[in-house]
Amino acid sequence: MKALRPALAVGALTLIATGCLNSNDNGPTGPAENPNLAVSQEINTVLRGDVGDFVWCDLNNNGLQDDGPDSGVNGVDVVIECDRLLDGSLWTMTFTTANDPATGLPGWYNFNAVPAGSCVAYVDPASIPAGKRLSDLPCGGPLEFFIGQGPVGNNNDMIDFCLVEDAPPVPGEIGDYIWCDVNDDGVQD
Fold first, then answer.
1. Would you say 66 and 147 are in contact if contact means Cβ atoms under 8 Å apart?
2. Strand partners, 134
3. CB 163 within 8 A of CB 136
4. Neighbours of 169 (CB within 10 A)
5. Distance between CA atoms of 77 and 35, rounded to whole angstroms?
6. Virtual torsion, Cα 101, 94, 76, 167, nearest 10 deg
7. Degrees to nearest 5, angle at CA 38 with 35 and 43
8. Conformation bin of residue 4: beta by default, left when phi > 0, alpha when psi is -120 to 50
9. In angstroms, rounded to a whole number, what is the distance separating the alpha carbons of residues 72 and 6?
10. 117 close to 81: Cβ distance less than 8 angstroms
11. What is the pTM (predicted TM-score) of this model?
């Protein structure tokens, strides 16, 4: 049996028998009724990968995960959109950050079986906790990546997002001097 295409690619793959396949099973009941087996099988193979994995509060706003293991933020919605057919039709999925099942630390997310294609991941701003906002640094997203064929697989656990503390507005001061402008000339005389 040989494939029409030498390498497995996204899409359909048709296998064609190059010789006669048969059953030589002469078990207790004798030979099979139809020993010739025809092979014409279409295999739909969709490459998939896992994507994750961390949303944290960047306390010093440097874009690095150096704020300690408990700096993760739960309850944030991470959205992935993939143009899996590269034709503009989007596959979309949302995951809400939670405690990592392995470590128990907050801020973890993981999308399983993301279909191959050109993808973008971003944080839904409506899900950001009060008092925080997306960083203006690249780790604030959105982040673009590609799921496809490759020797190391299709998994990407480097899609991380950083939030920063949203500084409250600094109160200003208004004032100086009030006077009665007796001659209505706008001058303090």
1. no
2. 163
3. no
4. 6
5. 56
6. 150
7. 140
8. alpha
9. 45
10. no
11. 0.63
Per residue in 131-185, pLDDT (tens digit) is 999 999 999 999 988 887 554 557 888 899 999 998 777 787 777 778 788 888 8
Collapsing DSSP states into helix, strand and coil, what is residue 140?
helix
Distance CA 58, CA 64 (A): 7
Q: Say if residues 163 and 127 touch (Cβ distance below 8 Å).
A: no
* Token pair of 170 as six digits: 């600094």
48-165 is classed CATH 3.40.630.30 = no
Domain residue extents for the chain = 2-45, 48-165
Distance CA 11, CA 115 (A): 12
Question: C-alpha angle 95/96/99, rounded to 5°?
Answer: 115
Q: Are 57 and 42 in contact, with CB atoms under 8 Å apart?
A: no
